[in-house]
Amino acid sequence: MKSIFKTMADTISPGGGGDILIVTHAFTIKTLIFIFAKHRLNEVTNIENASITKIVYENGNFYISDINNTQYIG
Length: 74
Hints:
74 residues, 2 strands, His_Pase_superF_clade-1, membrane, globular, transmembrane helix, transmembrane
């Protein structure tokens, strides 16, 4: 799964970067947290519906800046 994200990042980086939206299920989100930020896995026990988890690619590395963010819902 990490190689898919690397391929996407390498594809859009030469053009100046940009955003990629991926809509998926809680299990996949928890798997991505495990892959990119294992140390943060205990921050959330339940991934809320419609929440945002943001994975950032910067200087050749991935990190997670937001997990389970629902602030936009109001």
